[in-house]
Amino acid sequence: MWNEFKKFAFKGNVLDLAVGVIIGAAFGKIVSSLVDDIIMPIVGLATFGADFSELTYKAVNYGSFLQAVVNFFITAFAIFFFVRIINRYRKKEEAKPAAPKIDAKEELLMEIRDLLKEKKRI
């Protein structure tokens, strides 16, 4: 069961989707902060102090935006590091030589050969 879970969890599509969701959520915070803390206060200034969410004047809060950007880069770096480790593990697994596949005809010929050898000994 554990091996099946590992195959599922570390399959390329599942891992790519998880990374996309995490990065998307972190980037969503940047966009939200950009709109809430940078753009809307400027729009509020252009409309003589109107803030569309609270209808009050709100100063530009660039510190919150910078914090969202820093959080995004920290999250993205952590995900990058994690994916890099997973990819190294995958490369090691792929580098292991696979047993050569024998088709049915070759397998049958090997069985016949072994039977003939055994028959000569008897």
Q: Overview of this structure, please?
A:
By secondary structure, this protein is mostly helical. It has helices spanning 2-9, 12-46, 62-95, 104-121. The protein has one domain (2-121). The two termini are 47 Å apart. The radius of gyration is 30 Å and the shape is rod-shaped. The mean pLDDT is 76. The longest helix has 35 residues, at 12-46. It has 4 helices and no strands. The chain crosses the membrane at residues 12-31, 65-86. Its main location: membrane. One of its GO terms (molecular function) is mechanosensitive monoatomic ion channel activity.
List keywords for this structure.
mainly alpha; single chain; 122 residues; 4 helices
Cα-atom Rg, whole angstroms?
30 Å
Mean pLDDT: 76
How many E strands? 0
- Tell me the series of helices and strands, N- to C-terminal: HHHH
Low-confidence regions:
none
The major beta sheet can be summarized as: none
Sheet-strand content, in percent, reads under 5%
Dominant shape: rod-shaped
Structural category is: mainly alpha
How helix-rich are the residues, as a percent range?
A: over 70%
Total number of domains: 1
Enumerate how many helices there are, as a single number.
4
Gap between N and C termini: 47 Å
Summarize the structure.
With 122 residues, the protein is mainly α.
How does the SSE layout of this entry go?
Blueprint: H1 2-9, H2 12-46, H3 62-95, H4 104-121
Helix pairs in contact: 2-3
Keywords: Cell membrane, Ion channel, Ion transport, Membrane, Transmembrane, Transmembrane helix, Transport
Pfam family, one: MscL
Function: Channel that opens in response to stretch forces in the membrane lipid bilayer. May participate in the regulation of osmotic pressure changes within the cell.
